[in-house]
Design a protein that fits this description.
Layout (H helix, E strand, L loop, with lengths): L2 H4 L6 E5 L3 H12 L3 E5 L3 H10 L15 E4 L2 H5 L4 E4 L6 H6 L11 E3 L12 H9 L6 E5 L4 H5 L4 E6 L3 H10 L5 E6 L2 H24 L3 H21 L4 H4 L2 H12 L4 H10 L4 H7 L5 H16 L4 H11 L21 H8 L3 H22 L1
Parallel strand pairs: 1-2, 1-4, 2-3, 4-5, 5-6, 7-8
Antiparallel strand pairs: 6-7
The chain binds 1,4-dihydronicotinamide adenine dinucleotide and 1,3-dihydroxyacetonephosphate.
Length: 376
């Protein structure tokens, strides 16, 4: 993206695709930051309610939306003259949604993922799906992630997020319009770490929900959160993310928010599982998207491909499959690794890795950099 293109217009015209709880809330963030926002909703009646009553009563009851938001169910009209496009649909529907805009999305504008999932079947991150389906330069793509429970933000409770792009100028332009008096966007260029932080904390939040549902207390949850961060960091670093990103807003920050809140759909889904409901019942009862339920399988496949051990995520998948009784969930206590062939890992599995994991992740990141340097 050129320097000129990165400049932010005085009153940007922004399109948000997906009028669920996050797409609508983010539209408010953008409008309160000075943008004119067009929100695309699948259902014409929802578009009408947002446009005329400035409400989205299904997803954000009691919240008044700014006048600078309009809405339409006509996706071509929604994208006309857009200077930024944000996408906030369920991860597993992204590809299908993008197919219908591939030909009509304005050229050379930033496209930003607000989603926190991995595509089943391909294992692609959302920014990778954007890049491959829209066939656009990755420097035009950004992702936004952080401790961002929609309803709290819609009520203007202050928080922060990270906007990440391989191109710092793109990240900065997006962060500028995604900042207002109650929402601050920071920037980085670690798209991999930022996206995986958002994906993985959902899985740990499901685990926390499960132990909550079973009735276990704070010690259990604190150990799962701490060990969960180790899993998140190891996984993201194995794929080229930076460990510091996982200690930031998109990792630890989001993990704390999501694990601690009954507003979290992932946490809620976990709690129902912990109370003994089946996966099928939980899916049926969820009115909104709980991304962790769909991400667990592709995440475990990606972890296996890099030899990353993820006992918490594995046990979540076993509870979902009905092969593990929720009350037996104690992933931070498992010692499966002890029988593994790698001596180093056997040792690691018995240690508290808080700091050790970070050091190991840093070492792996430096090794990767050094190897890259050698091969170029
Ligand atoms: N709600 C939250 O607090 C936050 C959500 N996110 C992420 O934002 C993304 C969207 O989540 P939410 O807005 O919360 O979900 P939601 O369930 O509230 O809304 C999803 C929206 O996508 C639309 N949609 C378009 N195509 C669809 C399809 N084929 N199938 C189903 N729905 C379709 C739905 O009509 C609905 O308006 C997720 O990846 C989520 O992880 C990220 C940060 C915060
Ligand atoms: O991503 C979120 C908070 O940052 C929202 O979490 P849930 O999808 O679990 O509601």
């Amino acid at each position: 993206m050129s320097r000129a293109a990165a400049r932010v217009p005085v009153r940007p015209r922004v399109t948000v695709l997906g009028a669920g709880s996050w797409g609508t809330t983010f539209s408010k963030v953008l409008a309160d930051g000075g943008s004119d926002v067009t929100l695309w909703a699948r259902r014409p009646e929802l578009a009408k309610e947002i446009r005329e009553a400035k409400r989205n009563s299904d997803y954000l009851p009691g919240v008044n939306l700014p006048l600078a938001i309009t809405a339409t169910a006509d996706i071509t009209a929604a994208l006309k003259d857009a200077q930024f496009v944000f996408v906030s649909v369920p991860s597993q529907s992204l590809r299908q949604n993008l197919e219908q805009i591939r030909e009509i999305i304005p050229a050379d504008i930033p496209v930003i993922s607000l989603m926190k999932g991995v595509e089943k079947g391909t294992g692609l991150r959302m920014s990778e799906v954007l890049e491959s389906v829209l066939e656009i330069d990755r420097n035009r793509i950004a992702v936004a992630s952080g401790p961002n429970l929609a309803l709290e933000i819609a009520k203007e409770q202050p928080t922060a997020a990270v906007v990440s792009s391989t191109n710092l100028e793109t990240a900065e332009a997006v962060a500028k319009i995604a900042t207002n008096r109650y929402f601050r966007s920071f920037v980085n260029t670690d798209v991999i770490g930022t996206e995986f932080g958002g994906v993985l904390k959902n899985l740990i939040a499901v685990a926390i929900g499960i132990v909550d549902g079973v009735g276990y207390g704070e010690n259990t949850k604190a150990s799962i959160i701490t060990r969960g961060l180790v899993e998140m960091t190891d996984f993201a670093v194995a794929y080229g993310g930076h460990p510091e990103t996982l200690s930031g807003l998109a990792g630890l920050g989001d993990l704390i928010a999501t694990s601690g809140s009954s507003l979290s759909r992932n946490n809620t889904a976990g709690r129902l599982l912990g109370q003994g409901y089946s996966f099928a019942d939980v899916v049926k009862s969820m009115q909104q998207t709980a991304e962790g339920l769909a991400s667990v399988a592709p995440v475990l496949e990606l972890a296996a491909a890099k030899g990353v051990d993820m006992p918490i995520c594995r046990q979540v998948s076993e509870v979902l499959a009905g092969t593990l009784d929720p009350k037996d969930i104690a992933p931070h206590l498992t010692t499966d690794d002890d029988s593994g062939p790698q001596g180093e890992r056997t040792l690691d599995a018995r240690q508290d890795h808080g700091g050790a994991a970070l050091r190991r992740s840093l070492k792996r990141a430096f090794d990767q950099l050094r190897n890259r340097g050698r091969s170029s």
